[in-house]
Amino acid sequence: MSGPGYPPPNQPPYPVPQPGGYSVPPYPMAQPGYGDPTQPAPPPGFSVYPQPGGYQSPPPHGYQPSPQPQPGGYQGPPPHGYQPAPIAQPGGYQPGPLSPPHGYQPAPTNPGPSPAQDPHNKVTPYSGVPTGVPPGLEYLTQIDQILVHQKVELLEAFIGFETNNKYEIKNSMGQKIYKATEKNDCCTRNCCGSLRHFNMKITDNNDQEVIHLVRPYKCASCWCPCCLQELEVQAPRGTTIGYVVQTWHPFLPKFSIQNASRETVMRVVGPCFACNCCGDINFELKTKDEGASVGRISKQWSGLLKEVFTDTDNFGIQFPLDLDVKVKAVLLGACFLIDFMFFEKTGEMSQRNTVLS
What cellular-component terms does GO give this entry (predicted)? Predict the structure, then answer.
């Protein structure tokens, strides 16, 4: 007995029935076409394998097959003028063009100023303070008022023994900026009185000398122009920056404020009678031609007890803020000269009130 689907060995070939009602030979038959030596060669482009689109022969003339999906989603050559978007790189990096456009000049990696613009080629001088200011006087450039307070000497107040005068120099808020100390011997102080010569040292808060005053001895007489009072101002010591020179006048106390070349730059004019009675005594600071008043040196009322029993005096100096700092220092020296000439008492001698007494 034979197995199902296989003909007996002695049975001749016959068509085997197939599903659907048709029969095929039990063995392969030669197909006409390529591989059959009795058939002509196929036309160029013919393939026995399935072609895209399902045709088995060359496509019709002019036929363009539709693009097939490519790996990565590419769909064949892009249209004319199409520019693909750049592919994102790790970390957000976007590569630049392979070659720069025509005329493109890349910027230097470490730009620096050209030699003509390099600020280090020029040395700009430091201008924190005005030039020509003597050392230690920088603070005077910022103020327009000075207060001078003489210190009370107990020995002088009780027994009348003249001691070296000491002063505190303050700003308008009462802060001490300098101090002044007279340098003199005992005999000169008590024998020559207010006409005595002296050296006065003005120091800052660090005890550094910033101004040195020199007053020579001269007689006091308004009738003798050769004996007029004078004061030399040095800053620093040994460098003269100006003079205070008494100007001859029969009744009024007048002084010339001079620079280092002895040229008059300002004048000081006092009252005819330098006596204060519950009020201030003003010495006006005027221009060179005395046409206008620009400041003053004021002897301030110190109180009844101080005025009667001591020669302790308080002064105020006012001047323009933009005045030359050297002139400001000379005006400070003029304040001390005025104090010695008109408000200094020695022993039993009363103070001098006018240029005559």
Answer: plasma membrane
- Mapping DSSP onto H, E and C, the string for the chain reads CCCCCCCCCCCCCCCEECCCCCEECCCCCCCCCCCCCCCCCCCCCCCCCCCCCCCCCCCCCCCCCCCCCCHHHCCCCCCCCCCCCCCCCHHHCCCCCCCCCCCCCCCCCCCCCCCCCCHHHCCCCCCCCCCCCCCCCHHHHHCCEEEEEECCCHHHHHHCCCCCCEEEEECCCCCEEEEEEEECCHHHHHHHHHHCCEEEEEECCCCCEEEEEEECCCCCCCCCHHHCCEEEEECCCCCEEEEEEEECCCCCCEEEEEECCCCEEEEEECCCCCCCCCCCEEEEEECCCCCCEEEEEEEECCCHHHHHHCCCCEEEEECCCCCCHHHHHHHHHHHHHHHHHHCCCECCECCCCCCCC
245 touches 259 (CB < 8 A): no
- What are the tens digits of pLDDT across the range 214-266? 999 877 655 666 678 899 999 999 999 999 999 988 888 999 999 999 999 99
144 within 8 A of 321, measured Cβ to Cβ: yes
Query: 205 near 169, Cβ under 8 Å?
Result: no
In this predicted structure, the answer to whether residue 151 has a pLDDT above a threshold of 90 is no
Q: Which of 51-60, 190-199, 271-280 has the highest mean pLDDT?
A: 190-199
Please compute the mean of the pLDDT values over residues 268-272 and round it to a whole number: 91
- Those residues whose C-beta lies under 8 Å from the C-beta of residue 231, and which sit 6 or more positions away, are 213, 214, 215, 243, 244, 333, 334, 336, 337
**More confidently predicted of 305 and 294:** 294
Task: For the chain, report the end-to-end CA distance as a whole number of angstroms.
Answer: 175
Structure token digits, residue 37: 């030596």
On whether the pTM is more than 0.85, the answer is: no
